[in-house]
Amino acid sequence: MSRQDKTIDIEGIIDIPDFKTLLKKQGYSLAGNHSAVKTCLWLARSMKNEGSCYKSRFYGITSHCCIQMTPTLVCNQRCLHCWRPTEIDVTMPTDWDSPVEIVGSCIAAQRKLISGFGGSAPRERWLEGNEPKHAAISLSGEPTIYPYLPELVEEFGRQGISTFVVTNGTNPEMLKNVDPSQLYMSLDAPDESTYIKTCLPESPDLWKRINESLHVLKNKETRTVIRITAIKGLNMFDPAGYAELIKKAKPDFVEVKAYMHIGFSRRRLPREAMPSHGEVMAFAKDIAHNIGYDIVDDVEISRVVLLQNMGLKKLQCNFL
């Protein structure tokens, strides 16, 4: 019996017969055969005109018009800080849905998920939410595993939806071919040993691919962002080491964001691993100093600091 077939007992949730049932209990909506959609806290707040995600402040997205989705739940890392249930194996699909099918299924799933706001949110905002403007391809799993990711990005674009692709950087060949509105790459370690300890990759060779992806980012025409999840006591050291890696990519922006003690990560890391905003700011300043970037913004409630490469031209932030 595989791990996926066993009864799941995670975070006090017992007698869940399978992974899909667990996902539904966690608020995911399955879309097609292998994709998923989930609304976030900031969509709910934005829908009620009670605040927006830091990405709204940094990059101009409209939080209540954003689909948080993934084309695959499969991942090749089991990061300690991930809020997803990485303890559970996910079977690799043998038959992939088309980009057209995925986009249609995700929009339908999003509309169903926000249907409850029709009576509680301002009607104008609810109607806006039913016509999504952005897709954050980052919900769960590693999106570059989906073999038609470039075509998926293009299909969202054909429907007037901008795209943020968030990748762990382990598939450099795919990164060469995908051109979303913004390409995020996670960089959660300054060296290989810290990477293996923090991200638990399925193969140590993935560190070499991450380094290849950094070079790929340098040559991308689309806007690029390196995102560091800062975990106290685990990877918040050696800012010069991070800087040497970031210099390979020369991204437009670097986000330094605190690990948040939420979801399934609470089984793997203590609450003390969550740094304060002040600690994130100090760490970000050290990195900025080493790469010659400027700190241009921060959002304390999200414990995130934004660094910008002032020497590049791709700095227009509006995705409306």
Give structural notes:
- With 320 residues, this protein is an alpha/beta fold.
- The chain has a domain of 223 residues: Aldolase class I (TIM Barrel, Alpha-Beta Barrel), CATH 3.20.20.
- It is 33% helix and 18% strand.
- The strands form two sheets. Strands 3-4-5-6-7-8-9-10-12-11 form a ten-stranded mixed beta sheet, sandwiched between helices.
- It is globular and about 50 Å long.
Features:
320 residues, alpha/beta, TIM Barrel, ten-stranded mixed β-sheet, 18% strand, disordered N terminus
Concise account of the structure shown:
With about 325 residues, this protein is of the alpha/beta class. It has helices at about 20-25, 40-45, 55-60, 100-115, 125-130, 150-160, 170-175, 190-200, 205-220, 240-250, 275-290; strands at about 10, 15, 30, 35, 65-70, 135, 160-165, 180-185, 225-230, 255-260, 295-300, 305-310.
Explain the layout of strands and helices:
Layout: E1 8-10, E2 13-16, H1 19-25, E3 29-31, E4 35-37, H2 41-47, H3 54-59, E5 66-70, H4 99-113, H5 123-129, E6 134-137, H6 149-158, E7 162-167, H7 172-177, E8 182-186, H8 192-199, H9 206-218, E9 223-230, H10 239-249, E10 253-258, H11 277-291, E11 294-299, E12 304-308
Parallel strand pairs: 5-6, 6-7, 7-8, 8-9, 9-10
Antiparallel strand pairs: 1-2, 3-4, 4-5, 10-12, 11-12
Helix pairs in contact: 4-6, 9-10, 10-11
Radius of gyration: 19 Å
- CATH architecture field of the domain at 22-221 and 231-246 and 263-269: Alpha-Beta Barrel
Describe the largest sheet. 10 strands, mixed
Order of helices and strands: EEHEEHHEHHEHEHEHHEHEHEE
Proportion of residues in β-strands: 15-25%
Structural class: alpha/beta
Q: What shape does the CA trace take?
A: globular
If you consult CATH, what is the topology of the domain at 22-221 and 231-246 and 263-269? TIM Barrel
Number of helices: 11
Number of strands: 12
State the fourth-level CATH superfamily of the domain at 22-221 and 231-246 and 263-269: Aldolase class I
- Termini, distance in Å? 48 Å
Q: What's the CATH first level of the domain at 22-221 and 231-246 and 263-269?
A: Alpha Beta
